[in-house]
Write a structure and sequence with these properties.
The protein has 15 helices and 17 strands. Helix 13 crosses helix 15. The N and C termini lie far apart (about 75 Å).
Length: about 450
């Protein structure tokens, strides 16, 4: 098939996909494609060029193409803006029209942009030219099967699923596996996969960017693994492997107080008050603890890629069976006078909020509350992995103390769970123990992220 004008502006891997899709459209084959392109590799531009071409060729006919995204804001809106820009670039400025805020009309042809959110009402639309599922890995299988797939039933529409891999439970992975099986049967290519190395062949700036991400996150970080290498992860397992636990080990000594001229931060994980009742102290000897992790920020090195300072863990404090109110004065003294911490991130979830509020009153704006939610904890876990993988986080030399032994125990027992919505959970299974040192470590790392060393003002 001869390439339509405009498609030849795309990169070779984009053109290969576009030609296959257009061939299915023009020949009314009604094929379903799965397209995995590394993050920022140009899948949205490919989609917009296809939409531009199909609208242009069908200006005189009342036909629709439909594109859905997991959310209306910002994903659907971004797709709408991109198509408008391409229409203007092609000389259609002042000719195309916008309807109802989610429809772009060129002549009689329409591009309809919909949200695939569970609550979105999309039933009743028909796709004649093309049905596109953007970020298919984040779209509910049930939503797609019941509401979007039937949109092309009467028109034998060509369907395209775009995205990056996550795990083997997503809609995109299901479509991909079906396509690979069909390819083995009839030889028609339906699945297209281009990882970051393929994209980088045609874009030196992209190569530099991804290499920086690789250095920042680590080659096997879940996000780098899925979004750039396009390799699926499994549902869960150990949070840290042996190599990562070895990377955590530093060669600096444990300290008992801050040194002049150094910058210190702290992460505080608080024990649940319910576990501090006297009857539970007897029944549960391995009970929840309040843990403070002190870290020294290391600004040495001239690597511009690693924007966050390195963090050297220099001390741990651990209190078991102590109520929060009993620790107030001691916490303030340790953070203010012993270490002069510049930033302190405190677990303010539930019963932690009063403690965070007290510390904020005593120590001011250097105290930052952190509330654990599914989303915030996921980001915290990804950031912690990135710091370990890149060598930016080290713990003091083993000293045989109870704190160090418990720290190592939790690092070994920590587990991860990856969810379909590309979030993660990390924890120590209650049957193994607690994760106080793990969470305190993550909060200390959060305290050091993005910290800017300010020079002292002179007279």
């Amino acid at each position: 098939m001869e390439e339509p004008r405009g498609i030849n502006r795309l990169r070779p891997y984009q053109r290969e996909i576009a030609v296959a899709i257009l061939q299915s459209v023009f020949r009314r084959q009604g094929l379903t494609f799965s397209v995995e392109i590394a993050r920022q590799g140009g899948k949205n531009e490919l989609s917009a060029q296809l939409e531009l071409l199909l609208l242009t060729l069908n200006m005189m006919e009342q036909k629709n193409l439909i594109k859905c995204s997991p959310t209306f804001k910002p994903q659907t809106i971004i797709s709408i803006i991109r198509l408008k820009d391409r229409l203007n670039d092609a000389g259609f400025e002042g000719i195309w029209e916008s309807e109802l805020g989610y429809i772009i009309k060129l002549g009689s042809a329409r591009a309809i942009f919909l949200s695939a959110d569970e609550s979105a009402n999309v039933v009743g639309n028909t796709a004649h030219l093309l049905l596109e599922i953007d970020e298919s890995q984040d779209v509910s299988k049930e939503k797609y099967t019941k509401e979007f797939k039937p949109m092309g039933a009467t028109t034998n529409v060509t369907t395209v699923h775009y995205g990056t891999t996550w795990d083997d439970s997503t809609l995109l992975e299901e479509i991909k596996q079906t396509n690979l099986e069909l390819e083995r049967r009839d030889g028609i290519k339906r699945h297209f996969r281009y990882d970051w190395q393929e994209v980088a062949k045609f874009n030196p700036d992209y190569l530099a960017y991804v290499q920086a991400e690789r250095q920042r996150l680590g080659d096997n970080h879940p996000l780098f693994l899925t979004q750039y290498r396009l390799l699926p992860i499994h549902g869960g397992g150990r949070f840290l492997n042996v190599q990562q636990r070895e990377q955590l080990q530093g060669d600096h000594p444990r300290l008992r107080r801050g040194e002049a001229g150094k910058t210190y931060v702290a992460g505080i994980d608080l024990a649940g008050e319910a576990e501090l009742e006297e009857n539970l102290l007897i029944l549960n000897p391995k009970r929840d603890a309040t843990v403070v992790t002190i870290g020294e920020l290391d600004f040495t090195g001239d690597d511009a890629v690693l924007k966050d300072p390195k963090l050297k863990i220099v001390e741990h404090y651990c209190w078991t069976g102590r109520k929060h109110t009993e620790l107030y004065a001691q916490l303030v003294d340790i953070l203010k006078n012993v270490w002069r911490c510049r930033k302190i991130v405190v677990d303010a979830t539930g019963v932690g909020e009063p403690v965070a509020s007290f510390l904020r009153s005593a120590l001011g704006s250097r105290v930052v509350s952190f509330t654990f939610t599914q989303s915030s904890k996921s980001e915290l876990g990804f950031n912690l992995l990135a710091a370990i993988n890149s060598g930016r986080l080290k713990v003091y030399q083993g000293d045989g103390s109870e704190e160090y032994q418990e720290f190592c125990f939790e690092m070994e027992k920590a587990r991860s769970q990856y969810r379909p919505n590309q979030t993660m959970n990390f924890f120590v299974d209650p049957s193994d123990g607690h994760d106080d040192f793990l969470m305190s470590l993550a909060l200390a790392m959060e305290a050091g992220r993005g910290y800017i060393l300010r020079a002292a003002r002179g007279v």
